[in-house]
Structures are given as C-alpha cells and as structure tokens.
Design goal:
Radius of gyration of chain B: 13 Å
Radius of gyration of chain A: 38 Å
CATH topology of chain B: Rossmann fold
Distance between the termini of chain A: 60 Å
CATH superfamily of chain B: Response regulator
Strand content of chain B: 15-25%
Number of strands of chain B: 5
Largest sheet of chain A: 5 strands, mixed
Structural class of chain B: alpha/beta
CATH class of the largest domain in chain A: Alpha Beta
CATH class of chain B: Alpha Beta
Number of strands of chain A: 22
Strand content of chain A: 15-25%
CATH superfamily of the largest domain in chain A: Histidine kinase-like ATPase, C-terminal domain
Oligomer: heterodimer
C-alpha cells in the first residue's frame, strides 16, 4: 500500500468515526438542546472533516463541510438555537457528507455538481444569504498559479523593514527575509539603521536592534514581494512601496515634499515598545465583556472551563482490521482450545502422580486459554447500539416528514451480535421501521381522537435468549388490519371467500410476495415490496420473524436471529449415535426416558408427561434425516427445552457434559440447514452439530399451512 | 544535515498527509497528536536542540491546544525554534494570540503541498 493510499484509508476511517460522533451529538442535542459540550463536539467533528477532506483533496466534501461548520459556529456562538428542524437538517447534511465519502471511496466523483450546489444553497439559506462568509483568505500565495503576464518593465520598490525587537523569539530570522528579497530582484540600495543599537552593557544577545531600508529593482509583482513578508507583515513595521517614479532612470529623485508623519515613521520614531504596548492595550473578548458589565467574571470562568473540558474529551479510537485476520485469529483460538482440552484429558488419564506445580500450571493455562478464546470470539461481535441509533434516527426523520410525532425508545443497546449479521439485518430493519412509521403510527389528530397520547412510541429492544438474538420493533399505532389482509388474500386467490382462517395464518400473508396492505402507497415505503423481502433476507440469515398485532394497540415485530461464530453454552448429547449440542439456555430439564409416560396419537405424534404437563416429543433424528435405519429404538433419555413460545422434549441416547463452544456457521462452509444453528469442533477433535431449537420448532409445529415448509420434512402433518 | 520537523495535529489524516509531503521534500518528521504529546516528544530531543529546525502545530486539539503548547515551548530550551501554526482558524484575535505566544507564522488549512513547503522555507534555512 502506498503512503498515499494509506492516508486515504486513514481518512475514510477517521471520517466515519467523526460522522458517527457528530450524529451522536445531534441526537443528544435533541433531548438536551442546551448542551454546550455536544455542540462543541459536533462543531469539532465537522471542523476536522473539513480540514481532513481538504488535505486529501476532496474539495467538494471540504467546501460543504465548511458551510455546515459555519452554521454550527452560529450555533456555538448562540446566534442560532437548536430546533427540531435544524437537527433534521443537520442530520441530512451528515448523510450527504457520508454519501460523498462513500462515493469517493468507490472511486467515483464526490457528488453530482448540481446536487452539491443545491445542497450548498440549502445550507446558505439556513445561514441567511448575507451571512455567507467569503472563502477564507488563505495566507499563502497562489503557488500553483503561473505568473500572470510577465511584467516587461522593471519596477522599483522601497522596502522598509523594522522588525520587533523580540523577533528572534518567534523563530524568525531577518536574514532569511533579506535573502528571499534578493532572489526576487536586484538590490539598488540597502541601508541598515543602527541607531537603536544600545551600549554594549545593555546589549542583549537575542534582541534585534537593526532595521533596514532596501530599494529593489525587479520585474516581479508587488504581491510576490509582499509574500516574502507573509509571516511578519502583521506584527512588524514593514512596508513595501512602489517608488518607480522616484527612480525613473534608476536614479532616486529625492522627494522634497515628504510628509512629516511619514518621515517620523520611517525614522523609527515610533518604537517597538510603543507598538507592543499598544497591542497589549487590546484586551481579550471575555475581559472586555466583563469590564462592560455584560457578563460576570464567573460566567467567563465557567465558559472557559467548559470549553476546556470539552477539549479534553477523548475520542474512542478504533482501528480497521481485515475480517480475514480476525477469522484466522478465531480459528487459531479454537485450535488452541482443542489442544488444551486434549492436554487436559491426557492429564486426567495420567495415572502416575503428577507434580502439584505442574497441575496448577496446567489449570492456569486452561483458564487463560478459555479466556483468550472468549475474547477473540468477541472481536467480531458488536453491540447493536449503532444500528439502533441509526434506526432511531431514521424513524424520527420519517415521522418528521409526515408530520407525525414519535418518541423512540431503545433498550438492550449493549446486546452484541456478529458484525456480519448486523450488516445483514440493516435492510430488513429498515423496512420494518418504515412500516411502523408509515402505516403503524397515526397522525396526531387520529391519535387524539382515539384517546392516545399525541406522540406515538416506537420501541427497539434487543436481548439474547435460547442461544439466539431477539430484536423487537414495537409500535403503539393502529395495528395491522386483519380484515383488509383477509380481503387481499381472497383477491389474490390465496384463500377461499368463506374460508375461516386463523390470525396467525392471515399475518403470514403479509410476507408473501405481491402483497401490500396499504391502499395508499407512501413515497417512503415504496411500492409494497418490503415484507416478502424482509422474510427472504431473514431466511438467508437463518432468522425468523414473528408478528403480534392488536387493533389500535400496535404491532410487535420480533426478529429472531442466530448467533454466528458466537460463544454458546450447550449440552452435549448423542442421538442415534450422532453427536449433537443443545443450547443450554433453553433447556428446562433432562430425565431418564420412561416408556409408560409416553402417549402416542396419530401416526407419529407422541407426547410425554413432564412435570404435570403433556409435552410433545420431537424426533430430531427423523427431522434432520440423521439416520433412519434404526428409529427411536434406543432412546434412553429426554432433554426438555423451552424456546419461549413452545416447550418440547427431545429423545436422546445419552446426555453428556455441558460445554462452552464457538458456533461455526454451516452457511459459510456448506449451506444453511434448517434446524441446525451450526457446527463446532469439540475438545476431542470431533465435529458436533448445534441444534437450532426455533428452527426445529418451526419445522415441527408451523408448517401446517399450505405446506410451505412441508418439503423440509415428511415427518409431520398439520398441527397446532 | 537533515532538517528535523516536529508536526503536531490531532487528525490522523492530516498527520499522514503533511508528513508525507514533508518527507517527500527531504525533511525528517516526528509526529505528535497534541500539545502534550509534542512536549513529550521534544523531551527526548533535549540532548540535541540544534537538530530541531521547525515545529508545525495545529491549534484546536484535545488535552493541550496549540497556543498553550507554544507558550510552553517558549519556556524551554527550544524557544528559538520557529513554530508554524497550521490550522483552519482564521480568526484575527486567535492569530494575534498565537503571535503573542511566539508563533512564527500562521498557515491556513487546506493548502497545497507547494504552499506548505514554501512556508517552511520561509522559516527554515535550506542549507
């Protein structure tokens, strides 16, 4: 990677962090509009984006960020107050910057020029046209510009250099400046003024006592000469004057009519002390305000302190690492774990007495090894916080556009998921959030008519249960219109006119392609493609979606997702000689298989009496087609599980040890198999399959309707 | 002798690109992430103050801002090393403050590499 590419990489990663930071500040400002630290952070993020993008040559991004920064500056100086409108606008600006960054990262132009201008105008309108600051005057010369028309004739300039006495303390060197001038033309005359030189006793080595007057003959422009003084012109008594008239033939026509004041100045009658003294009389803004009684000294103190505080806020730093590197780390971690487990069992089998010390050391290593494995596996895991924030943001944006009021609540922000899964659920979540806002939440008037609070509530909730991650999106809107769904289903010929259909089945229809409940398609949720896509995407992830809805009370969408590459507590069992792992969290209990407690009905259905209840038994070996040669012959134990919605028992041959494992997705190495969450390598090096209980449940219980899932297994008929 | 420049900026992007530009032009560059880090880096150069030809610093930085940094440098044996300020702050009063603290010059971001090198040559002897 070249150094320039590296700079770009750094830029992309930094900008991404900054945009997130800015977004966080904005969302925080929404609830606490007065928060100066958030305004400060926001301002600083934008500021850094502006300069960073300019450094890597993305001028459109920089210019746009600059305009936004101006806007934020007004916020910072309290010329503008935080309003919902403004926040929405700024969030939009951040999106726009992000889109430009995305485009350049893919090698495209930053933005369509027209779009960019339109966007810039929007910011300007916010700023008020008269408030547009002219592009900053850069102190630098237009270095790249070719010299304009070569100036044929020579010009004479008089350069007066009277520097501050303490010039050396600023690291400047007058000799460098003189040499710079010498490069630009021919010195006609150089007159040093030594009048200020003190007695030797008073001479201080690092003070400057000499000033110069130079007459230069040059074909360069005034600006070229002035540029030499770039760093000294502001606080030193330096002048350049065109004196060509005096030097018509290269000879100085002494001016007899010079004004006294000019002479005084030239002769250095005004000293540096006078100058610095005058400079010092100028006070800082805060002090002036205090003196004028506009603010109290304490106010000033407070403002300065909070400013300083905000400057010390550290940014969470992140680094970008190739996923492959992490994956190979994870694999190594697993191999290490396997090695350690083997070593451990060797030790246990070891009959000869072993030194105590070695045993202790062994235990330590095992502990560290497990910890290491756990931490490595966690590297790929990210909290859902960022995802939720994004949708929180989207929800409020959408609501705002539709003049609806909403309140967004997020819980379980620290629930961690595999990065890949997080990336893949973004689209389905987007659809669901849109649905909630577009169709779920009513307008303010509608809500009030129903006696609901004017602002709708959307809740995002994440939690882990049964070895899976659940994400709920809940709104308190109007709920799904079952009558309408039924009507549509009839229209589409999915059910008969007078067919009695359960609520669950009706709800299932909204995931069928070609279905749209909303009679008026909003601009935002598109053309009613949505829900079937959501379902497909979740299927691909090995996830499921569940709906719970009640008229005028709202809807809950529950996404249930697998933990890929995730650490899981499992119970090791064997069934038909196959090694299987059951997620420990879902297990209610295990017991010895007692034939007399089994009640069979139908061809295959069996229930088992467990703790006073009759619980269905699922023949997993059959469902998974593990081994059909010997069915149910030697089941000697039962594992009872509860997935949250259903409880069932699994007959197994043998119940072994509980274990902690890292689940490997089957999808990456083979293909996704319903009923299996993944596979893992056990301590003894053998491969074992992890059961996906919800998947099993779905195969067993939910394929009653129209047999969508029936081909998955021939084992079952219709059931509840 | 190779001219040594200390460059201080809290943005990795800017650090990377400015260092690239300076190194390309034959300068030796040490990077620091803020004023405090800058002072620490200088601590290790104490033995050879002559070797540091220039300091370039940002203004708006966490922990220690550029102005404070300049004031601190002026209290050390490095006080005669020129300091260029490289910032987006174009506010007059701030520039004045920088001057008073002892900055040799003020450069506004963004800039072209040529401009940076041009400015550096204004305060660093080329031979």
């Amino acid at each position: 990677m070249s150094e320039q590419d590296e700079t770009l990489e750094i830029f992309f990663s930094e900008t991404e962090d900054l945009l997130k930071l800015a977004e966080e500040s904005l969302l925080a400002l929404e609830s606490t509009p007065e928060s100066t630290s958030d305004i400060e952070q926001l301002f600083r993020s934008m500021h850094t984006i502006k300069s960073g993008s300019a450094m890597v040559g993305f001028m459109s991004i920089s210019e746009y960020a600059h305009l936004v920064e101006n806007l934020l500056e007004r916020l910072r100086s309290s010329k503008l107050t935080v309003t919902n409108n403004l926040i929405t606008f700024l969030l939009g600006s951040i999106d726009f910057i992000r889109s430009m960054v995305d485009r350049v990262s893919q090698g495209e132009a930053e933005a369509d020029p027209e779009d960019l201008n339109e966007r810039k105008d929007q910011v300007r309108r916010y700023l008020g046209v008269d408030a547009i600051s002219t592009p900053e005057e850069t102190a630098e010369p237009p270095a790249k510009e070719e010299p304009k028309e070569p100036i044929e004739k020579f010009t004479f300039y008089e350069i007066d250099l009277k520097f501050r006495k303490d010039l050396f303390y600023s690291g400047q060197d007058p000799l460098l400046i003189l040499l710079d001038f010498a490069e630009l033309g021919e010195f006609v005359r150089v007159v040093p003024d030594l009048s200020e030189l003190p007695d030797f006793a008073n001479f201080r080595m690092h003070d400057l006592y000499i000033s110069w007057q130079i007459i230069i003959k040059t074909n360069r422009s005034y600006e070229d000469l002035e540029n030499v003084l770039i760093f000294v012109k502001d606080d030193n008594d330096v002048h350049i004057e065109d004196v060509t008239n005096r030097y018509r033939e290269g000879i100085d026509i002494e001016l007899a009519d010079k004004k006294l004041g000019e002479v005084l100045l030239e002769n250095g009658r005004i000293t540096e002390e006078d100058l610095t003294g005058a400079l010092k009389k100028q006070k800082m803004l805060g002090e002036i305000l205090v003196d004028d009684g506009k603010i109290r000294a304490e106010d000033l103190e407070e403002a300065v302190t909070s400013q300083e505080e905000s400057r010390t806020v550290y940014r969470k730093t992140t680094i970008r690492v190739d996923v492959e590197k992490i994956d190979s780390l994870i694999n190594l971690g697993e191999e290490l774990g396997i090695g350690l487990s083997r070593l451990q069992s060797l030790f246990e089998k070891h009959t000869a007495p072993v030194e105590m010390e070695i045993t202790e050391e062994m235990e330590d290593i095992l502990k560290v090894g497990r910890e290491f494995q756990e931490q490595v596996a966690r590297v790929r895991m990210f909290p859902l916080e960022g995802t939720f924030r994004r949708f929180q943001r989207m929800a409020r944006d959408l609501a705002f556009q539709q003049n609806k009021q909403i309140k967004v609540i997020s819980t379980g922000l620290d629930t961690e998921m595999d990065k890949e899964v997080i990336e893949h659920i973004a689209d389905p979540l987007k659809h669901l959030v849109r649905n909630c806002v577009d169709h779920g939440i009513e307008t303010e008037e509608e809500r009030q008519a129903k006696g609901k609070p004017p602002a709708g509530t959307i809740e995002f909730k994440a939690y882990q249960r049964g070895g899976r991650i659940f994400i709920e999106i809940r709104d308190d809107g109007r709920g799904l219109d079952l009558t309408n769904i039924q009507k549509k289903a009839i229209e589409r010929g999915w059910i008969e006119l007078d067919q009695v259909v359960s609520k669950e089945i009706l709800l299932g229809f909204i995931f069928k392609s070609g279905f749209s409940t909303s009679s008026q398609v909003t601009e935002l949720s598109g053309r009613g493609v949505g829900m079937d896509v959501v379902k497909t995407q979740l299927d691909q992830l090995g996830g499921t979606i569940d709906i719970n809805t009640k008229k005028d009370h709202g809807t809950i969408f529950t996404l249930c997702l697998p933990l890929i590459s995730a650490l899981m507590e499992v119970l090791h069992v064997t069934a038909q000689g196959t090694s299987l792992l059951v997620p420990l969290q879902a297990i209610v209990g295990t017991e010895k298989f007692k034939k007399e407690r089994v009640k069979g009905f139908g061809a295959h259905e069996r229930v088992y009496q467990f703790r006073g209840d009759y619980i269905p038994l699922i023949d997993i070996t059959g469902i998974l087609n593990l081994d059909t040669t010997s069915t149910n012959g030697n089941s000697s134990a039962l594992v009872f599980v509860d997935t949250g919605s259903k409880a069932f028992g699994i007959p197994v041959d043998e119940v072994l040890e509980p274990q902690q494992i890292i689940v490997k997705s089957l999808e990456t190495n083979y293909r996704s198999v319903k009923g299996l969450a993944g596979a893992t390598i056990l301590g003894d090096g053998s491969v074992s399959l992890v059961l996906d209980l919800l998947g099993l449940e779905e195969i067993f219980f939910k394929n009653s309707f129209k047999g969508d899932a029936a081909h998955e297994s021939e084992e079952e008929d219709e059931s509840g | 002798m190779e001219k040594h420049i200390l460059f201080i900026d809290d943005s990795p992007t800017i650090r990377s690109s400015v260092s690239f530009c300076l190194r390309n032009a034959g300068y030796k560059v040490t990077e620091a992430i803020d004023g405090e880090d800058g002072l620490q880096k200088m601590e290790s150069m104490k033995e050879e103050t002559q070797s540091l030809s220039l300091i370039i610093t940002d203004i708006n930085m966490p922990r220690m801002d550029g102005i404070t940094f300049i004031l601190k440098v002026k209290e050390t044996e490095f006080k005669f090393v020129p300091i260029l300020v490289l910032t987006t702050e174009a506010e007059e009063s701030l520039i004045k403050k920088g001057r008073e603290a002892g900055a040799a010059g003020w450069l506004l971001k963004p800039f072209q590499p040529e401009q940076l090198l041009w400015a550096v040559k204004k305060v660093v002897w080329s031979k």
